[in-house]
Design goal:
Low-confidence stretches: none
Strand content: 15-25%
Radius of gyration: 19 Å
CATH superfamily: Dynein light chain 2a, cytoplasmic
Largest sheet: 5 strands, antiparallel
Number of domains: 1
Structural class: alpha+beta
Helix content: 40-55%
């Protein structure tokens, strides 16, 4: 199941609620859903948490690390490891598979019990997969109205004034 195709509408609201519950019950700082290519599909931050590192870098590195760990598991004859934990002096990341195409990542302080986060993350992953698998709502379609060309011109003019003038 491609999570990004199902993460919209009511399913998105339900997933956000589940992640919010993970943050509250686990006292985590951040909860993320990342696809295996490293794209952050969703990020929820606890109200008292500091800004995370750049999300594009974080997503890429976590997905790459998970991929490397999967390759390591194959050396041992395993299909892969289903979870991954990194613990530093102040921060722990816990990564759990979310189906076969995404990862659920929890970021929390080392002072919080790892067992609690693992338990809550597993329960959250199960709930998320259920919500996403039940979502039969079609993703929103891209609709280009009659003003799309002038809107694009305005956007280009705002972003690259000289480039737009060169086109005329």
């Amino acid at each position: 199941m491609d999570v990004s195709d199902r993460l919209h509408g009511q399913a998105l609201l339900a997933v956000e609620a589940q992640l919010g519950e993970l943050l509250a019950k686990g006292r985590a700082r951040h909860a993320l859903i990342i696809d295996l290519r490293g794209f952050v599909l969703l990020h929820i931050r606890a109200p008292n948490a500091a800004e995370p590192p750049p999300l594009d870098s974080l997503g890429s590195l976590i997905a790459s690390n998970f991929s490397a760990t999967t390759a390591l598991a194959k050396l041992f004859g395993e299909d892969g490891f289903r979870e991954l934990t990194q613990q530093g002096k102040d921060v722990v990341t816990y990564t759990e598979e979310l189906g076969d195409a995404a990862l659920l990542v929890s970021v929390f302080a080392t002072s919080k019990p790892l067992g609690r986060i693992k338990y809550l993350s597993k329960k959250t992953a199960e709930a998320l997969l259920k919500v996403l698998s039940e979502n039969t709502e079609a993703p929103p379609a891209l609709a280009l109205d009659g003003n799309w060309e002038s809107d694009n011109d305005d956007l280009l003019e705002a972003l690259l004034p000289s480039a737009q003038n060169d086109l005329k």
